[in-house]
Specification:
The chain is α+β, with helices and mostly antiparallel strands. It is built from 21 helices and 39 strands. The chain folds into six domains: 2-38 and 162-185, Phenylalanyl-tRNA Synthetase, Chain B, domain 1 (2-Layer Sandwich), CATH 3.30.56; 43-157, Beta Barrel (OB fold (Dihydrolipoamide Acetyltransferase, E2P)), CATH 2.40.50.140; 207-405, Phenylalanyl-tRNA Synthetase, Chain B, domain 3; 412-478, Phenylalanyl-tRNA Synthetase, Chain B, domain 1 (2-Layer Sandwich), CATH 3.30.56.10; 498-694, 2-Layer Sandwich (BirA Bifunctional Protein, domain 2); 710-797, Ferrodoxin-fold anticodon-binding domain (Alpha-Beta Plaits, 2-Layer Sandwich). Helix 14 packs across helix 17 (616-630) and helix 20 (724-733) crosses helix 21. The chain is elongated, with a radius of gyration of 41 Å. The protein starts with a strand and ends with a strand.
Amino acid sequence: MLVPIKWLKEYVNVDIDTKELADKLTMSGSHVDSIEKMDKGIEKVVVGKIEKIEEHPNVDKLVITTINVGEEENLQIVTGADNINEGDYVPVALVGAKLPGNFKIKKSKLRKVDSYGMLCSANELGINENVIPKEQKDGIFILDKQYQLGEDIKETLGLYGEVIDFEITPNRPDCLSIVGMARETAATFNKELKYPSISIKNEEDDISKYLNDIQIKDTDLCNRYYGKVIKDVTVKASPMWLQRKLMEAGVRPINNIVDITNYVMLELGQPLHAFDLDKVQGKKVVVRRAKKDEKIITLDDTERELDESMLVIADEKQPIAVAGVMGGLDSEVTESTKTILIESANFNGKSVRLTSRSLGLRTDASSRYEKDLDPNLSQEVCDRVCQLIAETGAGTVVKGAIDRYKVKSDKRKISVNPQRVNRLLGVKIETGEMVNILNTLNLHASYLDGEIVANIPSFRQDLNLEADLIEEIGRIYGFDKIKPTNLVGTLTKGEKTYLRSIEDKTKDILTSLGLNEITTYSFISPKSYDKINLPEYSTKRNYVELKNPLGEDYSVMRTTLIPNMMEVLTKNYNHGVDRAWAYEIGNIFIPKSAPVVSVPYEVRNLCIGMYGDVDFFDIKGTVDKLFDRLGITGYEYFREENHNTFHPGRTANIIKNNTLIGIIGEIHPDVLENYGMKERVYVLELDFNTITALTSLKRKYKELPKYPAITRDIALVLDKETLVKDIEKIIWENGKDIVEEVNLFDVYEGSQIPEGKKSIAYSIKYRSHSKTLTDGEVSKVHENVLGLLRDKLGAELRK
């Protein structure tokens, strides 16, 4: 928010250095971003009048001007400008003048004709090109009327003083105006606020002759619409004082009608819009949601496609403005306009923000409306516009107004305890001073029965609690006056949550096993579910769609980490990385219902991916090592043949206590083809919340064995489909507590083994922790194990 100091002083009398003003306003809560000086170092530039223009005798593109600067003799100045006429008042840089950029003017000779100075453009005077009126951008700056000849141009155009750029927080839309910042300044320095006097004189006719009606059909998006009519309009350039104020505040002047609405927006904080009433069909205004596929050409000459979520201002047939964002080109005020409707409305901030974002169209109006403005301001700002239009001779105000106001915003009362104020702020402020501070902020406070009661005006919608008033008292009193003290209270030692601790330990384990951690986006493309071959009926396809995605590739929340892992592995593969081991611990998002109406469940998952000189047992060994370090036991692997993402013969579910905790296996060849990979890929996905619940970091230690072990090797011939886990389960369950190790060391299929059979060899270590075992004791247990293997699995000893 750019605030020219000269303009600010019209409402509050502060006569201090601008730097000090900025510092104190910053301390009271109005953060100053920068201070810019309007004086760009101009010297000896004065007002001149063009008395005569003659053709240059030697060059067609140059003319010789005779300039009156109020001295006895006129000046002869040669110029190439083609926008000047005799009688124009213009800025004249005299010989010896200095312009911005330390550019000095000297006597010169242009094609054998002497020139004693230079006629200046707006840009050469140091005026920012972004705010120069279009008609003044090229050529000499033509002044709007007669001024005293020889007067310093800095006084004529107000090219002096400073402009403060304030950073206004979103909760303070009342500060997005000169009056709003004047109110803050008055409170900070305990000065009187001089509010602009608003009154309309000499109204004529009746509004009913010009405007039939104003209807608000969607009152949830528009709380108030106030309209007045101006007749006998004359559209022309604004007076220089008005143009100067707008330019200093960073706004380009356009014409008197638009400039006055912009002036009042800057002065009081609410945007307004002027419609050419003769172009409003049916002389009726309807505030409604846009219709499906409805379109409008906005003032920037761009066709915009609307949808039913957007609010528009329409006449009887079509939209004439996008509410709170930009007007329509068809109802634009032009030089031929004779009757205008002044719109002063209060729109729903969220609606304006979403519409602005959806259309990719952000304006000064939308940036204010999206912050929810004070509805009680609408009549005031409209009357102010009408007043200025009448005072500048731009038109005649028609008597009467149409005001549609849904829910009136009344003052609210908030009480604050003075003792609590001092206790929380750590100061000793007199109750009377607290009341005075709140009154300087126009909060109409009084002390009654031990409480300070403040009547909160509608422009301060950010004040709702006692704590808000305490903050207001503190910032105006001065936070810099509060002496630093030691903290009072009980300090507690912070620590990580159990989930975070297990997560950190898991990362340490996986990193030590040679895996690299990856982090990916939580939102993915819906096509990712097709790439991993999920069937249409899969619950994993019940995902949350984003309303404002970055693009289709990031438009839904993931329900599995596998697509992210495959993308990372594929990228490494395509970059020539011949071996990649990676893991990620991240959230997946499961909708609570369909359609989605509330925040989804967030479930923590662990995903591991591998390719390059690895097989199923590499990733299985990684899981076993992880579970061993986390103290997770009693889990089992069960073959999974019906998961479309994985190879049907090389995939297993991981089960613990009849609960599925994850899946592990080789990625299906069709999925690999979808990703363009020619390497076998192995992936694991686990429910990390369940893993955390199963984790036991307690450890039991026992002494080293005192007694010797006896090792027996066996080679079994079994059916080819027999699972190793079934063999090992029989050995462990029937080992009579003396089986210490079971090690698989050979699997063989070949000519010496019958067709449909395989040979599996184990080394079994027997040991007792209480005595030395005899061969007889070991043989008894060993033979029992072999018998059970034969009876239950059909195993035979290989001969």
